[in-house]
Request: fold
Amino acid sequence: MFTGLAFVPVPHLTNAIQHLNAAILPELDQFIGWFLLNYTGVPLPDGTLTRAKFPIEFWNVYDRLIYDVEYINVESAYRRLHTIFSCANPNIWRFIEVLRTEQRGRDADFERSLMGEDPPPKKKRYIITERRIMNLIERFDPRNITEFLRGIAQSTVDQ
Reply:
């Protein structure tokens, strides 16, 4: 359900974390502490938050999706490289070879884009997942945050 936090409107994020904290197993308390420290900031007695290592604006995508703002998906690039390397620790020569091959592919994609060619169509499963997530985001209700987080988590399984 933590993946759902990226889709919660920023003003409701603290409430969502409280709901999530109440709904999860006590064994995950250490993870919650780590998440707060790095991604939202730790609540202080005066109600403010400490500065997070990764500010909310970096990882929260709610506004970008609602206002249809394009952004670079680094995670998909990482997954692609991880798949291409097909091992956890490639040697330096394999690493260089893979990066060169990938760069040639990106350069070719860019040139096709300059010529006006459309990008390849998205896979059907990604289109369906995006539609599900947008439906959930458009129907966001702060009174049902736990259900929202569960819905996002179930929509992003196996993606």
